[in-house]
Sequence to fold (157 residues):
Amino acid sequence: MNKSYLNIYNNLIKLTRNKLLYEKICNQDSFSDRFTIFLFHFAFFLKVYKGSVSKSNMQEIYDFVFKQVELSIREIGYGDSTINKKMKDYINNFYSIIDKVELWDTIENDEKSLIFSKYFDISPKSEFFVNYFEKYQTFLINNTLNHFTKDVISFKF
Fold:
């Protein structure tokens, strides 16, 4: 296990635990919502750093993160067959999110808001998530990957 990859994973988890993100979701806080927010954070992370990190390192980070996710799901108590099904669904969901995040800089804010309304029970006109992920993307751009690998960091954006 690479400690720097664990720090990346823990930093993504810390971002996902931001309570402000869940105040905007209308339904009850669920594992699915939390995991979807995690996937958005990870998708932006991959988008920003894919140009500055080798493909093999990005693949190692990707593999490590999803291995940690699988371990977390096991800790919840799901059985092997359920985990396999859930991981397949989560991976498909993640690729859907990646497709949207890749186009992020070319689409209007209204369309960005619609993206989040499809994944969460929020108003299609809500711009909270759009603003949050714009700030997050700027934060990622202004910091190197090394910043995420050192330790669990404090986020101010």
